[in-house]
Specification:
It contains 16 helices and 15 strands. The chain has 427 residues and is α/β, with parallel strands linked by helices. The strands form three sheets. Strands 6-12-11-7-13 form a five-stranded mixed barrel, surrounded by four helices. The chain is globular.
Amino acid sequence: MGNAVTENPVFKNIKKFIEDEEKNALMEKCYSAIRTEGDRVFDRSLPYLSSNDFDAYFPLVSAVIFTANKFECDTLNYLVINQNGGTVHKRREKIHIFGNSDIHSPVAYILKVSSSYILHLLANETGSYTPGGSSDLVRYISGNPALRPSCIISFGICYGRNPDEQIIGDVLIPRKLYPWSIGQKVVEEELQIKNDNFNLWLEEKFDKNDIYSSIAMYCNDGDGRIIEKSIKINNEEIKFKINISYGNVSTGEAVVSSKILKDKIAAANRNEKEIGGEMEGYGLAKECVYYAKIPCVIIKSICDWGELKNIEKAFEENGVNFPNNLKDKLQAYASFCAGLTLLDLFLEEGDKLLTSSIINGLKEKYICNEYHYSSEEKIKDGIKELFDCEIDCDFIFDNLLQLNKLIKVEKDYKKMIVYCIERRKNA
């Protein structure tokens, strides 16, 4: 490959990353936390719930998170347990999203993060409109009467735009999406990107919801921010320094694997401020904006540059030493950066991202709020009225108490037991 490759900014960027002893050690630790000799030992250690026991949590779900590969999935679950002190339970059977068929079904987990429950779905396929991809998952969620999440989050890895300005592990949060592979043309055996001036400005589409104002504040608007986080892996504390950018991101169904294609995407979209690209956002955002009417958020971390995909071969041919399973390890490291950012965002802006539809419903019906007390029976009746399906009101009520969403109060001289909603940020 010669000098042309060694002078390539992508080659130099990843070479610099793996030759940095601290970054290389950090990458190895991230990989070893969720893999043992390539095996998913961590995932197999998670406790199972039967389908009925698992689905009983659906009315309590505050948010849904999609992951598109096993590295993203395992990292998120690992961090919820080890960074957040939360719990993770796996559904024994996959969730059927196409009738009773198991085909293209996602693997499902229930995460307990602070005082909220989150449904985590590992998609059967990457991409937006592949069977079992992000659009199918949104349709399943919006069509399930027991699920009323405050938002849907696509979490994982992406490619970066500029290796001269960005580094592996930088986190990108789109304020606007530019779809590029929907309606593409192939003319004379050459791919031509169709520019139909269609975009998904998430910040604008969900402006009536406070989620994006909170995200913009978290990211210092267009200026971005840097966070420093520590986590224990195998009893050793390791530190991360993560750059977070908030801007415009391209999204498409196909894998981007060349600089020519990257440049065509940017030129077709006339997107001078593009910061990177990914694959699941279009299906997620289009379904959420125009059909499900559920706010969506995308949090991705750079694991490559959408070009020079066979980096291991390039290193080998140019005498550069590199770790085994480099591609997998870069994905694991990037997933940890995205996961630590997501949990930090929950910590700072959880009152917007992890709101409880049940608590909001009880407040709107004036059945129960910070100042209005109600009996257990009245609250359970109110919960039942919120859902057009059969739910376990006793189970939900008990969990709201355990999560401190409801507060038990002994009222007046008769020692009557009543309940109110706790007055706190994440109530």
